[in-house]
Write a structure and sequence with these properties.
This is DNA-binding protein. By secondary structure, the chain is an alpha+beta fold. Helix content is about 30%, strand content about 30%. The chain is built from 13 helices and 26 strands. Strands 1, 12, 13, 14, 15, 16 and 17 form a 7-stranded mixed β-sheet that branches. Strands 2, 3, 4, 5 and 6 form a 5-stranded antiparallel β-sheet that branches. Strand 10 and strand 11 form a beta hairpin. The longest helix has 27 residues.
């Protein structure tokens, strides 16, 4: 239905031109209509074939361009076929026909101008929240995901378990939460047209943990006919287009799995702003299609079935960041004054953004924002776009001013291992105990995971590497404690008053100074204090009574900010 409708609309300008020719030409009207109808049938067939493969959304800009092209080709052909008095065109046809082309061209120019002027309105459709700081990182609440390059590499090595594996290639990876685990889901797709003709359906999909670098992929046999790699009437995008031709499809449909393990294809669609193709977040929907039957249903993105994490696509998130950062004071300001303009970096894993999850299991798209000024490699802040609502939260604040951006974080990792050619991937900015921190995956040239890097965002020399996310986080926290220049973050983390009798004490000397660690009676928490913060702590002994202000971390440890020792301090 969509292709038929698009084809009919594509010939409107030609039909108007043919009608004008029939009325104004000295050639008999019957002869004009005969040739015009023949060309209409020819143009309809050609445009039907073109629209079948290109699937242009039925929007004013798209249809206007197609109408101009078909009219420019078909109307001169009609005039040439009439051949009045052996001339190419009668003079009295010249003005009306060229007036039609001129009108079409003027409309096209109007659409272009409107495309710029509506950017202010498009920016206003974004729901924006601004926060000074992000919540402090908890490794249980904010899992560090495995880089998709590494996950894809592992799944590729397991393709041999797929029946008739020679028919298939690995499709797009999509991260989602299945049960209590965050995983990558990747469908197997047809390798080419002939494999589609022979295979008729794909074999299923892989899952692999997105938080455990040692996990192995699992293959689930779930035959699918309607896929991204199918052809003709079983191509997912074409199936959706035929039912929703007036909507623009954002990016490639992605696969998500429900609680029963059944896969579904999910595609974000939207109606554009006014007479343009610009994103309108007020008209955002998601189509959920059954890959077995082809049945589909459209939802508002925040009303999609609960198992769908990414009803807002990564492409939409990227456009949202662009509109928010560039057009905060309108299009003219984005070109000339550039007051408060912020540009999103493109360091993410999906369309320039990186998916991540919060403590409630909700998915967001992360990206950092930088200045439009050249040769500036510092971040102004970062955004999280809700993957179900499209709402954008911007984290700026004093602590995020002047920190390095994601490209700078990757370059630090790249320069650390030049001989091994290890590189940084998927940088994400976290708040680790009040310190803005870049967490970067380190992969080798073959896409194999090697380490995690924790980089203090406002100090390019403060880098800690670890083989696992937890080990790297613990080492990073210890390094923060040992750094006498680190001011701590008592206003950003939970601080409690603790008191008791010391049962064990250890003093370690480091390059940054002396570190005192101790236990209290009937308390297994390991308390750590830097001698630069509490100089008298170096005289701490078993049996001393203390009272302290401690930041309790999530790994059974705590850091001391202020401490009083009975008999030594007042």
């Amino acid at each position: 239905m969509g292709i038929l409708l698009a084809t009919l609309i594509s010939l409107i300008l030609y039909v108007i031109g043919a009608a004008v020719a029939a009325v104004t030409s000295s050639v008999p009207t019957g002869r004009v209509m005969k040739f015009a109808f023949g060309l209409f049938i020819f143009g309809f067939i050609v445009m039907a074939v073109i629209n079948y493969f290109t699937m242009p959304a039925i929007t004013i800009p798209n249809m206007l361009v197609i109408n101009l092209i078909t009219a420019i080709v078909l109307i001169p052909a009609l005039v040439a076929m009439l051949k009045p008095k052996n001339n190419f065109m009668e003079k009295k046809l010249f003005i009306p026909l060229f007036s039609i082309f001129g009108l079409g061209l003027l409309l096209f120019i109007a659409v272009i101008i409107t495309s710029f002027t509506v950017l202010d309105n498009a920016h206003n459709t974004i729901t924006v929240n601004e926060e000074a700081e992000a919540k402090p990182l908890s490794k249980d609440e904010t899992p560090i995901t495995v880089a998709p390059e590494f996950a894809r590499n592992k799944i590729q090595k397991a393709m041999s378990v797929v029946p008739n594996a020679q028919f298939y290639d690995l499709g797009k990876l999509q991260v989602q939460q299945v049960g209590d685990e965050i995983v990558y889901v990747a469908p197997v797709e047809f390798a080419d047209f002939w494999k589609f003709v022979r295979g008729k359906e794909t074999a299923g999909y892989f899952t692999i943990s997105a938080t455990n670098v040692n996990a192995q992929p699992t293959f689930e046999e779930e035959p699918m006919e309607y896929t991204n790699s199918s052809y003709f009437h079983k191509y997912v995008k074409r199936v959706i287009y035929n039912k929703f031709p007036q909507y623009i499809q954002s990016g490639e449909a992605q696969i998500e799995v429900d609680d029963d393990g059944k896969p579904w294809y999910v595609q974000t669609i939207y109606k554009p702003m006014h007479i343009t193709n610009k994103l309108n977040l007020d008209k955002l929907q998601v189509v959920v299609i059954d890959p077995v039957t082809g049945e589909m249903k459209a939802y508002q993105t925040d009303e999609a079935p609960d198992f769908i994490e990414g009803s807002v696509s990564s492409d939409i998130a990227t456009l949202t960041n662009d509109y928010y950062g560039k057009y905060i004071h309108g299009w003219l300001n984005s070109v000339f004054g550039k007051r408060d303009v912020k540009l999103p970096n493109k360091s993410g894993t999906e369309s320039g953004v990186t998916p991540m999850f919060d403590e409630n299991g909700d998915m967001f798209y992360f990206t950092d924002m930088t200045s439009p000024k050249e040769n500036i490699d510092s971040a102004l802040g970062y955004t999280l776009v809700n993957a179900r609502t499209g709402d954008l939260t911007y984290y700026g604040g004093e602590k995020n001013n002047g920190i390095m951006d994601s490209e700078g974080a990757k370059q630090i990792v790249n320069k650390e291992f030049p001989e091994k050619k290890w590189e940084g991937y998927m940088p994400v900015l976290y708040n680790v105990d009040g310190n803005p921190t870049w967490v970067v995956n380190v992969l080798d040239p073959n896409g194999l995971h090697k380490q995690y890097a924790y980089i203090k965002a406002n100090d390019s020399d403060f880098v800690v590497f670890g083989d696992t996310a937890n080990a790297a986080l613990d080492a990073y926290r210890m390094a923060l404690l040992q750094d006498p220049g680190n001011t701590g973050a008592t206003g950003d983390t939970v601080t409690e008053t603790v008191q008791g009798t010391v049962s064990r004490v250890v003093i370690n000397s480091t390059e940054q100074g002396q570190i005192i660690q101790f236990l209290l009676e009937d308390d297994t928490t390991i308390y750590t204090v830097n001698a630069s913060k509490a100089p008298l702590a170096i005289f701490l002994e078993q049996g001393d009574n203390i009272e302290a202000e401690a930041q309790l971390l999530d790994n059974g440890t705590a850091t001391i900010e202020v401490m009083e020792i009975e008999g030594l301090t007042e």
